[in-house]
Design goal:
A: mainly alpha; Serine Threonine Protein Phosphatase 5, Tetratricopeptide repeat; 19 helices; about 65% helix; B: elongated
Chain lengths: ~350, ~220
């Protein structure tokens, strides 16, 4: 080990001293969700993902600090003072506990019966009048899949946490600080409303592909791996639905980004290509497929994919992103003729 | 002291005993994993009552500890966050409970603590916009130039990427020497599946390997 030794001194001592002085915790786009990092402690992460998370945390000063603090907070048993606080806490009172239990248990899903059968007989006359004015359908509309989809689209646009587009979404500025998704309390109100609707919808219709798709899309926005399973289930129920394939492609893409996994990039590309066979000019599918192509295809294929997108949309904010990707590809391609696949663009 | 308070203190003691000896459940009482499983049914009021009784001291202690990282120590906020933890457990048809995998005896306690900690971190990050202080550790007089340090890291890492060093041992080395986790903290990462002695043994072995390689030049 000649090079390192030129500075002299014990390498381990120098390593430790340098870590003390130069450690720079700074979150980056590649950092995983912190909630998942902490789940390494109780061993709740599958081995392959755990391996990637630990390798990242060992080298990343931000994630290393998250893991260190979590280990400090969670591995030590409660101190005497904390025990005393627990004894004085609000929920140490059995009556308060009972109230909370009732609140949790009472939050039942809606009665699966149609709304008109749930109404008492005396209310029918009023209901008819309200319905005539359009009011009776309001609640039904608020909880409908269409409205829930619109809520998720609004959440995506306001707090866009991924490069991929999702069905029915308007453009939003990507927020790189949110990592790979939105963790619970970061969730915008639209996402909270949508997930509440989805819970109710799935309670009443557990095998409804629309609700399963919306659940998968909500999980995707929250950065949860369960999105893929839910969307694959929705796809098995409605294989010719291109919007499910968009969501699924985006879910595999996000997994690939998070885990740097070429197989997931490939699956994302496959699902999006299937979608394009059903809807060849769909701008969302074209955009997302071009993104996936950058990671697994040659530069010429990725360039052709972006060109295809720009033929159907050349003026929107998404088109501006497409132009930026295209410029990157051209630049990298001309700089590196030896590299068959291009690097992901940095923005 | 009221009887309620006396009961609470007894519950605290019982819970902490269970935490220290997680494999053992009091005779005739269902395991904590069973309680969690039953709570996945949101209509099971008795299971939820048992869940709250059994885990509340642990959740309060975790919430309090993590709150302090952000410089907060107010009992009212702690109570609100504890309540948020339970709502997190019950949200989305108790999805968090359904996702739990009992990979080893007592894993449930670590899981409950992590979920509670995540709720507190999320609260401060989103509502207050704060992050815990991740600033570098205090300067050490022995520290050399940063470039030199980064070259050293690169060279050691090249050494650790070669056999016979496993990927897991390399992770442990960097968690210890770069990220500053103690052997005990590393051993608390269940995904690594090592005892404190196991971690220490890896550190000693790699320490010797690195020193030998640098001396051997």
């Amino acid at each position: 080990m000649k090079t390192g030794d030129r500075f002299g001194g014990d390498p381990i001592d120098r390593l430790r001293a340098g870590a003390m002085a130069h450690r720079r915790p700074q979150k980056t786009r590649g950092c995983p969700d912190e909630d998942r990092l902490r789940l390494l402690l109780p061993g709740q992460i599958e081995p392959a993902e755990a391996e990637k998370l630990l390798t990242h945390a060992a080298e990343c000063d931000w994630c290393g600090a998250v893991l260190r603090e979590a280990a400090q907070d969670l591995s030590e048993p409660p101190a005497r003072e904390e025990e005393e606080l627990a004894g004085k806490a609000r929920l140490a009172d059995p009556v308060r506990r009972q109230e909370l239990v009732e609140r949790i248990v009472r939050a039942k899903p809606p009665d699966p019966k149609p709304w008109f059968l749930r109404w008492p007989a005396w209310g029918f006359a009023t209901a008819a009048l309200v319905a005539a004015l359009g009011g009776a359908s309001y609640e039904h509309w608020v909880r409908s899949p269409a409205r829930t989809g619109a809520l998720l689209a609004a959440a995506y646009t306001k707090h866009r946490s991924m490069e991929m587009r999702l069905p029915g979404t308007a453009w939003g500025q990507e927020r790189i600080q949110m990592g790979t998704g939105m963790s619970s309390s970061h969730e915008p109100p639209e996402l909270l409303d949508a997930t509440s609707n989805i819970s109710r919808g799935l309670e009443a219709h557990p095998d409804d592909a629309r609700w399963l798709q919306l659940e998968g899309r909500a999980d995707l926005l929250e950065g949860k791996d369960s999105a893929i399973e839910e969307l694959e289930r929705a796809r098995s129920l409605r294989p010719a639905d291109a919007t499910i394939l968009v969501d699924l492609g985006a879910a595999y893409y996000q997994k690939a980004v998070k885990e740097d996994d070429p197989v997931s990039y490939s699956l994302a590309y496959q699902r999006l290509s299937e979608g394009l066979r059903l809807k060849p000019n769909d701008p969302t599918l074209l955009f997302d497929q071009a993104l996936a192509a950058e990671h697994i295809q040659t530069p010429s294929v990725a360039q052709a994919a972006w060109d295809a997108y720009l033929k159907v949309d050349s003026t929107s904010n998404f088109a501006a992103e497409a132009h930026a990707h295209l410029d990157n590809i051209k630049k990298n391609w001309s700089n590196s003729v030896l590299t068959p696949t291009i690097q992901p663009p940095t923005r | 002291m009221t009887s309620g308070q006396a009961g609470s203190e007894e519950e605290v003691r019982l819970t902490l005993e269970v935490v220290e000896r997680p494999c053992e459940s009091p005779a005739g009482e269902e395991s904590p994993e069973d309680v969690l499983r039953q709570c996945a049914n949101l209509r099971h009021a008795q299971a939820w009552e048992r869940f709250l009784r059994r885990f509340n001291p642990l959740i309060v202690a975790t919430v309090t500890r993590v709150m302090r990282r952000y410089g907060f120590d107010r009992a009212g906020l702690s109570d609100d966050l504890v309540q948020e933890v339970y709502l997190k457990f019950s949200a989305h048809r108790a999805k968090v409970l359904r996702e739990f995998k009992p990979r080893y005896p007592g894993a449930v306690f670590g899981y409950v603590k992590v979920i509670a900690a995540n709720v507190v971190h999320d609260h401060f990050k989103s509502k207050v916009g704060k992050h815990p202080d991740h600033s570098p550790l205090p300067d050490n007089l022995a520290a050399r130039d940063e470039t030199e340090w980064r070259i050293l890291i690169h060279e050691i890492d090249s050494l650790l990427k070669k056999p016979p060093v496993s990927a897991r041992d390399r992770q442990i080395f960097w968690l210890y020497f770069r990220q500053g986790l103690s052997a005990k903290e590393i051993a608390s990462i269940s995904s690594l599946d090592l005892t404190i002695k196991g971690v220490e043994s890896v550190i000693v072995r790699l320490n010797q390997l690195v020193r030998k390689a640098f001396q051997g030049g």
